[in-house]
Amino acid sequence: MVSHQNSSNPTRGAGVAAEKIQDVKDQLREHAAKAMEGLQQAGNEVRAAAHEQIDTLRDTASDCYEEGRKRIHEVGQTLEQRIRERPLSALLIAAGVGCLLGLLWKRR
Fold first, then answer.
1. pLDDT tens digit string along 83-108?
2. How far apart are CA 28 and CA 26, in angstroms?
3. Per the confidence metrics, is the pTM higher than 0.70?
């Protein structure tokens, strides 16, 4: 005679399987939540690094602009000083450049 206590109950087996499936689903949700959290943290770090680099580039560009502006101003002052020192030479050079540009323009 076979004992019914040792035989598996189909309803109980289905319940165990459903519990295992639910455990797997819960674990997957937990892993997915951890992965999302990690991705969000990585995204925040990348965003912060990008903002830092943009600020550095902005500062560098501003410094280069100021340096260029100063140099142009210095060149303008030097040019003005040389024109005052040698006005005839400056006039002849300007006339020569004008003639050269006129000839080049005429060829077009």
1. 999 999 999 999 999 999 999 998 87
2. 5
3. no
Secondary structure (H, E, C), 4-53: CCCCCCHHHHHHHHHHHHHHHHHHHHHHHHHHHHHHHHHHHHHHHHHHHH
Q: How far is CA 106 from CA 36, 93, 96, 98, in A?
A: 68, 20, 15, 12
Q: How is the chain split among helix, strand and coil, in percent rounded to 5? A: 90, 0, 10
User: What is the sign of the dihedral through the CA atoms of 93, 96, 100 and 105?
Assistant: positive
SS3 assignment for 42-54 = HHHHHHHHHHHHH
| Exposure string over 4-35, b if 16+ CB within 10 A, otherwise e | eeeeeeeeeeeeeeeeeeeeeeeeeeeeeeee
Residues 90/82, Cβ–Cβ less than 8 Å: yes
- Do the Cβ atoms of 90 and 83 come closer than 8 Å? yes
